[in-house]
Write a structure and sequence with these properties.
Helix content: 25-40%
Number of helices: 14
CATH class of the domain at 3-166: Alpha Beta
Low-confidence stretches: none
Oligomer: single chain
Shape: globular
Radius of gyration: 23 Å
Distance between the termini: 56 Å
Strand content: 15-25%
Number of strands: 25
CATH topology of the domain at 3-166: Rossmann fold
Amino acid sequence: MNFDALFEEARRYPNARVGGVDLHGTACDVPTAQLLAQAHDLAGRLQESGLRKGMQVGLQLSNCYEFLLWDLACLCLGAVVHALPEDLPADKVAGITKKHHAALWVCQKEENFPGMAQRVAAADTQLAGFPVDTSATVLADADVYSRVYSSGTSGYLKGLEISRRGTEYLVTDFIRDFGLCDTDSHLIFLPLSNYQQRMSVYGCLWAGASFKVIHHTTVFQELGRYRPSFIVAPPTIYENIYHLFGRGPDAHATLSAFFGGKIRFMITGMAPIRKELLSAFASHGLNLVEAYGVTETGMIAWNTVAQQRIGSVGRPIHAEHVHFTAESEIVIRRPYPLTKTYFDSAGDDRAATFQADGSIMTGDIGTLDAEGFLTLSGRKKEIIVTGGGAKFHPEELERALLEIGGVKHAVVMLSQGDNRVVALLVIQDPEDADALVRLDQAIAELNDTLPSYQRIQRRVLSATMPSIDNGMLTRNLKCDRRGVYRHFQAAIEERQESMV
């Protein structure tokens, strides 16, 4: 893919379409050519208002048609999209707008930008002119295409500068390895402000695929309605789908109908997924494959329909880019990483992540097997250190717990009060006595295989799956361990008889 030729290439596919909803909630379904024409027109009007290459345009929009228009219009002009999380509160927005001299801030909620009427525009692209501040900062690095934020589970926002060449590199890899073409259709429901989903948009445009952008809360209704050929989602989405539609004698037909009957492949990542779940989807003829990447570098490895190994995150896309420290931390050295650097970060994050020689430290621990498949052990910073000084990765134990029948989600942590290993387990019915007996027996059997410091000493049960709304998932649907602890603190810290 080449950004400079993106519009020209996308126009080669007259049958490609773009769907979604606009700012007012009205459904839209238009030819891709119409989206491009509207974006080109918006770019012209922004230029007339004084917007120039390298200036920043801030966007705080939900997943809507207008987000696509503004993003593509800025691409036309070479302006830098400064994307704010849609749920970022006004006080944090104020800090960002004060620190970064953007030419224009575009929003759905003008109350999030108090006292900035001269530099804020509603996202309505039909306006004749825009309040562009022509004295705005111009970024010197022409390769910086966008600025985005990633909080992960760190508890604070980190700003990342996104590379044009890094994006082109990754999108080209994806189109090649997954055979993306003009017969494909993609349903996008994770936030566009996260950036990964914007790469999906560019990939669809370049390959001539159709796509639809929706809010994550409507994904279950939209899957069967839109009938995509591929989706990208975290394990919790697939877990819920399989629980509802993957059981019983008619499961094969029911699952196929739920997805719309055209699914070619599905990608998951962001958190561990049960091997049993991957195998279960495969038994119904549905290709659910696991992938791995971090925003700083972009995608690193993936399983594909043609080459996959359950339990791994796939083969590295470019094996020569993947290296390991003595502690098995994954280090990426590639010619064009997705992220140039942090433009906002706390402490020594930048120095710890972006090395002087161009290497990027992922913070993930992993190993390559003899056939080149990559397996992850966990996050370096999430290693649990017990009261006796022993260390282990909670993700390894969580994967083992997910293999227990009836366990839909697992989070392992150390209690703060008495340093016990506690497992939070999401199951269907925490009041089902027979199920609890089977669960405790399975945990006991698992404990017998573990060293003493790693054995589960308490369990906390819930029927509530983690979500963004309850604070247990991040915006990009990764497990927020701090949020999980806050939600279940009383139960986690409750002194009770040990299971071992």
